[in-house]
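Appendix B, record 7
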Amino acid sequence: MTKKTSRIVAVIMLIIAIIFFVVALNNPQASFPWNNIITYILYGTYIIIMIILFIAPFKRKK
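Structure tokens (predicted):
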């Protein structure tokens, strides 16, 4: 994956996360059909992948 592609994917993921957060705040009655632990694992995984995609283009090649 190129540096530019990685950054674009990370920005798109960030925009989707922000939109999801705004929608979730406006619909507090909605919930997922599974346990909260699974939800937190999914959120954590999403955030970790997004951070990796932001950081990856800045790593130096040896």
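Remarks on this record: The CA atoms of residues 13 and 55 lie 14 Å apart. The mean pLDDT is 81.
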